[in-house]
Design goal:
mainly alpha; two-stranded antiparallel sheet; 6 helices
Length: about 150
């Protein structure tokens, strides 16, 4: 059974990191690294990584931390139909560790292109996601105010 309390606790940390980032107290890189540490930290207590980033995962890009406009899609790295070695570590792959799995279209392309070593992979995979994600899945992942 999963420990939801650790996720809620780390989500509180993430909420404060975002406040500090928004006020300029933290750089983008520092904020993203701290958030990624909170996301990974839940694994010490059988937690769920998505719970640690719940405050941002449906309204901010996990790479640039840009707050998305209502209705703007975030593309999950987990929706890419790839069986590549190391794929389970895509969120933690250098040179940029990601805060969360949902990315704006620009960042999605950058991350997927780099990860797959193909300059057209991101655009191709976004198209695949758009064609195969059901209306229910889009609704489940739709933008939510932080």
């Amino acid at each position: 059974m999963s420990c939801h309390n650790i996720g809620r606790g780390m989500n509180y940390v993430v909420k404060n990191v975002i406040k500090m980032y928004d006020t300029g107290e933290l750089t983008l890189e520092a904020a993203r690294k701290i958030i990624a540490a909170a996301r990974r930290g839940v694994n010490w207590c059988d937690g769920n990584e998505y719970e640690a980033v719940e405050i941002i995962r449906r309204c901010r890009c996990g790479r640039c931390l840009k707050k998305m406009e209502a209705g703007a899609p975030l593309y999950s790295v987990w929706d890419v139909p790839v069986d590549s070695p190391g794929y389970s570590r895509i969120l933690d792959t250098e040179p940029e560790i990601l805060a969360s799995e949902g990315l704006c279209s620009s960042c999605f392309d950058i991350v997927i292109n780099r990860f797959l070593g193909d300059e057209n992979a991101g655009q191709r995979e976004r198209k695949y996601i758009e064609e195969h994600r059901s209306e229910k899945e889009w609704k489940a992942n739709e933008w939510r105010e932080e």
